[in-house]
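Action item from last week, closing it out:
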Amino acid sequence: MKLLSVNLGRPQPVPYTDQAEGVTGIDKRPADGPVRVAAPGPKGVGGSGLAGDAVCELRHHGGDDQAVYAFAREDLDDWERELGRSLANGCFGENLTTDGLDVSGALIGERWRIGSGVVLEVTSGRIPCRTFQGHLGERGWVKRFTQKGATGAYLRVIEPGEIRAGDPIEIVHRPDHGVTAALQFRAVTTERELLPRLLAAGEALHPETLAKARKYMAEQAG
């Protein structure tokens, strides 16, 4: 398992974002050298966990629990075949394009060591938005991406440091609860009846997901 590329975005004006300023950093491109990774701060204040990477919509993106977004090259290849077009590393807005790692099948709370020092922890899958659809220019993209369920994974930074393309990725902790990023995604989008299963992942869950699962359980009990 290895890191194929570390991808950074610059603010760009576009006509398809909900952001008031009309800019987005979703179009990410591979960096040439090492990139510093650190916890960016709470949601709404902190942006990306990668130095030099723009997060323009702080209401829904960035922050400690969504500091880094990873997507598997294998899933990009699958979409290439389905869409009939080339998809470069970073084009899904991912910071990390991986090789040999089942990103959507990663467990909530699973930890990866990248290179010699950086450790990241999986918190959730990625929910597609209007900006993602506009960036790709595919009709019905939000629905198609949701139906496939290969979401990639958001991660928080446990141990900061530097990473670069070619770094090895090692899974250093894998919980036994069975709650994957893909399962979490289905539970908060199309299959709310799965929400109780997410509680097995406990505090490792993205806080917003944990709150949704607890609220659902309270509603069912009351």
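Closing note: The radius of gyration is 17 Å.
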